[in-house]
Structures are given as C-alpha cells and as structure tokens.
C-alpha cells in the first residue's frame, strides 16, 4: 500500500513532469543539409543523420533535398541561390519544434549554405556544424566571406587530406572569425572523411572509431555552446 499522502504524490508527479518537460525542450533540433553530389537519402547522409541524432540527443534531425536534385541530374546552382529554400525548411522545422535550440548541420556545400542561413537576422540559430566545409572554390580561391560573417558558435570537422579545405587555410580563416569555433580533424580523411586502409592499419584504428570520435567532439561542442 502506498504510504505517501496523495498531495505529496501529486506534487512529486508534477515536479517530475516539469523536469521532463525542461529536458525535452533542451533537446536540440538539427536541420542537416546534403552536399552537392548526393541526396539526403545517400548512405553517408543517413549514417551521419543517425549518429548526430544519438550523440546530440536531438528531438529530430531533419534532412531534405535541394530542388535541383529532383528529376534529371544537373549541377547545383550557386550556393546563394539555395538560401531561400534552405531557410524555408528551417522555418518549418522551428514551427514544428518551438522552443528547441536549432542546430544547422551540413555536408560540404550544405554546410556553406547553412552558414549563410545562420547569418539571416530572422532565424535564431544556436550553433552550426560544418562537415567537410568547402573553403576553396573551383578556381582555387579561398571563400571565407560566409564564415567571417557568422556570429553563432561553429564546429568544423575536416579530413586532413581534404583538397577542398587545406587545414592551414582553414586555420587562418578561423583566426579571423568573430564567432566562437572549434575544429576536429579526421586524420587521413578525405572530403567525405574516408580513410585509406594503410592509414587505418598504421594508426591501429577503424573508420567507425574515427567518425565516432568526431561525433563526440561535435556533441561536446554543442553541449558547451547551449550551456553558454
């Protein structure tokens, strides 16, 4: 037989519900954008979507396809032309999950567009996660303008062998950024973080272990950013 007075039981139940509600509201929602060549349904995107959801305890990880991916395959437009569509997805997500911190994540081109969206004044972004940021353009020039405009905490995950983002160029850019930022390097990783077998053998590690370490670094950064 329950010996607690009914009033006390109600109070403890209410306190528990309030605490659960607080924890639920603190769970971030992530909008995760794909890169230039593969859609949100790709194995890479689905794997990282699941890893981000678990590591960040996210209420949801929303993926989508930019319009150019539908129908006949064609080259993506300039990143600037994708901002409106991306921001509409973000606004729809915020309407669905009011009160949850918003994290914008992206693969390559998707991270660049996400950074542009994060700089819009009518969207409140808590942090940005860039997976393989394409710092160098087709002509080889450093494209740092978007990053220098950011004011929200930004996490970079880059492969050490990523030709689109030489680490020395990124380091120079990071020093010029006003936004708080951190970098996690996947040693031996290419633009999609793929590590060669010889490198993995030499380092006595696996692809999964290296990617898991990156995800944990992201989780630590997001946790610190949300608390701050």
From TrEMBL:
Residues 1-20 are annotated as: Disordered. Pfam families: Abhydrolase_11. Residues 29-222 form the KANL3/Tex30 alpha/beta hydrolase-like domain. Coiled coil: none annotated. Gene3D superfamilies: alpha/beta hydrolase. PANTHER family: TESTIS DEVELOPMENT PROTEIN PRTD (PTHR13136), TESTIS-EXPRESSED PROTEIN 30 (PTHR13136:SF11). This is KANL3/Tex30 alpha/beta hydrolase-like domain-containing protein. It comes from Clitoria ternatea.
């Amino acid at each position: 037989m329950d010996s607690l007075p009914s009033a006390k039981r109600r109070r403890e139940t209410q306190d528990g519900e309030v605490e659960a509600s607080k924890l639920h509201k603190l769970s971030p929602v992530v909008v995760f954008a794909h890169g230039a060549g593969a859609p949100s349904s790709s194995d890479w995107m689905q794997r990282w979507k699941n890893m981000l959801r678990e590591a960040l305890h996210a209420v949801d990880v929303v993926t989508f396809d930019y319009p150019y991916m539908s129908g006949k395959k064609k080259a993506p437009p300039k990143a600037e032309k994708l901002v409106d569509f991306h921001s509409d997805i973000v606004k729809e997500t915020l309407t669905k999950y009011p009160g949850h911190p918003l994290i914008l994540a992206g693969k390559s081109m998707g991270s660049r567009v996400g950074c542009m969206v994060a700089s819009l004044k009518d969207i409140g972004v808590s942090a940005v996660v860039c997976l393989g940021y394409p710092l160098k353009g087709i002509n080889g020039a450093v494209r740092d303008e978007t990053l220098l405009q950011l004011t929200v905490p930004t996490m970079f995950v880059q492969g050490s062998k990523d030709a689109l983002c030489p680490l020395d160029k990124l380091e120079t850019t990071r020093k010029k950024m006003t936004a708080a930022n951190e970098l996690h390097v996947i040693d031996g990783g290419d633009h999609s973080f793929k590590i060669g077998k010889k490198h993995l053998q030499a380092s006595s590690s696996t692809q999964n272990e290296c990617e898991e370490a990156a995800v944990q670094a992201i989780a630590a950064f997001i946790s610190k950013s949300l608390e701050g």
